[in-house]
Here is the input.
Amino acid sequence: MKATDLIGCAVYAADGEELGHVHDLRLESDGKPEDGDWRCRLTGLVCGSSAIGHRLGYGTGDMAGPWPLTSLLARWRRRSLTVPWRDVDELQPGRITLRTSRRQLEQMQR
Amino acid sequence: MTRKAATRKATSLMWANEGLLDRLLIGIDGEDVGMVDNLEFSDATPASGAASGAAEPELTALLCGPLAFGPRLGGRIGTWWTAIGRRLRPDGDPAPNRIPIQLVRRISHRGVELAVPATELPNRRVFDWARSRVVDKIPGSGA
Here is the structure.
């Protein structure tokens, strides 16, 4: 499986509601590569209606400026949902179906 | 486990767009190898994996070159890009250049630093071809 098999896919909640497209992948690793035996796992998918903030590197809120962009893209970023990999139910070409609803995902992220 | 070791093995979070994709690949000799164009994960069947409590897919390799970047571009341009990459492959192998994750030594602000020299990786074929066939023949090129 490649990153491009996931990025750009349409994401649907368990009740059939479309949540947008996958913009980014959340990876978690134990330690750092310099420690040796580095393992990195795919733990979540970032999905939403607008990808521009993620593509410009404003996805995590760490960007420091310029101010009109940070405030505007931060607002768009808040509309994105991070879906844990364990909530992915079915993976088809161009389409990902979840086992949870939008409401459950929003509750998890609070 | 000592406190220092426990801290070192703490879980760290990374985003594919920010941490890996489009980062420069640098060999241990300091030479550029290419860019991270795509990521390869171990296969995981979502439904059965989640039902059995199986682990998430693991990052197994960094992919680079036109055959990795074409699918990322998508559409007609992506298809053309992939086709050009395929034509440039001497062995006709449609798989992209693959750098196993075990070769990653460090991820820094410079890019992804590898544990092997650039010359040992297959990514520089076009660069080497251009140097031997074109650049080296130019007087004063230093060849």
The beta strands of chain B are 11-15, 24-26, 32-35, 38-41, 59-64, 97-100, 104-107, 112-114. The longest strand of chain B covers residues 59-64. Chain B has a mean pLDDT of 79. The radius of gyration of chain B is 19 Å.
